[in-house]
Amino acid sequence: MTPPTAGAVRLVDAALEATVVLSFSRVGYAVRSRLAGWPQDGGFTGAGRRFVVTGGNSGLGYATTAGLLRAGAVVVFSVRDTDKGEATLARLRTDLGVEAADRAGFDLLDLADLSSVSRFAANRRAEELPLSGVVHNAGAMFATRSETVDGLEHTYQTHVVAPFRLTTELLPTLTAAGHARVITVTSGGMYAQRLDAARIDAPTGYRPSTAYAHAKRAQVVLTAGWQQRFAGSGIDFHVAHPGWALTPGVEASLPRFRRVTGPLLRTPDQGADTVVYLALSDRPDQRPGRLWHDREVRSLHKLPWTRSGRDEAAALWSRVCHDAEVEPAGR
Ligand SMILES: NC(=O)c1ccc[n+]([C@@H]2O[C@H](COP(=O)([O-])OP(=O)(O)OC[C@H]3O[C@@H](n4cnc5c(N)ncnc54)[C@H](OP(=O)(O)O)[C@@H]3O)[C@@H](O)[C@H]2O)c1
Asked: Which domain holds residue 23?
């Protein structure tokens, strides 16, 4: 049989993308990963590379940690308490074997506390080992509006302010690697929202999914901002959305969605696949600063009214620098 042409493959991919539901579900992954042109894993390895993964004890963070370890990398994953760290190491030993699990270690990090972020970053700097990448994976949807110990709205701090501070404080160890990547896990939910820097902390009328989508949109805009400011620094910035995957987070915060989507949800490994790919493959670095899904660059907007200009992106950058109390020194 004649293999499909590149044009035919692009057509199938675009048709999936247009449906949203099929694209985000396990159907999207199953179809795309069988298409000709799907980048094969054979060309990349984690050997000799060291990564930080936030929220490595659960869902997509665990799958990312396991994927990087399987490829031969060293991983420092973050947890919020020591018991979760020990339980995750035990699970990695069972799932991957002792050799791979021995390349993993954990450290405590609570993104809802900026002093914890700085402590975590200081611990990495003190190790005096280069970092090949950071995966900003940790996140959650909060049922009601609340503020952190730093006086910032929880969703905004967890997804936007704290990762921004962590990246800034890890810049020396990332630069030391010669070539490093910062990868952020956003959500397809961000397609529903326009960036609104002034109201990113939901000062009034809090709705969990709206606050979450605003924060996830901000992650995408900031990734482009980092790339623009740090082009040529040896660090590339990528952002990926995982589609919909069945994780403890989805079960806890979206029980109705989980019931409705049921068997359509991806496995955590399928959701984390593009994140692991971005961490290990060199191909994405030819197109940095972009949004990825299923190993391909995706559009930033599905609805015309979600577009915003450079001024809004600049306003977000200034606001986050102010709230994170850092000023990353780019170009
Ligand atoms: N699953 C999906 O379909 C989906 C879709 C789109 C985007 N995402 C994104 O994917 C990422 C992972 O989500 P998941 O579905 O894997 O959820 P999950 O199973 O609930 O895992 C979330 C992880 O984030 C950690 N975390 C939460 N708040 C934190 C904080 N303040 N400080 C440090 N760590 C914190 C959690 O730690 P604890 O265990 O201590 O709570 C956990 O390790 C999130 O950014 C989420 O928004 C997921």
From this structure: 1-38
Task: Indicate which CATH number applies to the domain containing 210.
Answer: 3.40.50.720
pLDDT digits (tens, 9 = 90+) for 210-269: 999 999 999 999 999 999 999 999 999 999 999 999 999 999 988 888 888 889 999 999
Q: Which amino acid is at 284?
A: P
Kindly state the tokens that stand for 303.
């609805």
Distance between CA atoms of residues 241 and 103, nearest Å: 27
Q: Show the tokens assigned to 150.
A: 């730093």
Q: Are residues 152 and 275 in the same domain?
A: yes
β-pairing, 291-293 with 296-298?
antiparallel
Separation of CA 62 and ligand 1 centre (Å): 10
Of 280, 296, 195, 189, the C-alpha closest to 236 is 280
CA-to-CA distance for 300 and 195, rounded, in angstroms? 11
Q: Is 280 in the same domain as 170?
A: yes
- Count how many domains the chain has: 2
Q: Looking at ligand 1, which residue's alpha carbon is closest to its atom 44?
A: 139
CB of 159 closer than 8 Å to CB of 215: yes
The yes-or-no answer on residue 206 being catalytic is no
Q: Answer yes or no: is the C-beta of 184 below 6 A from any ligand 1 atom.
A: no
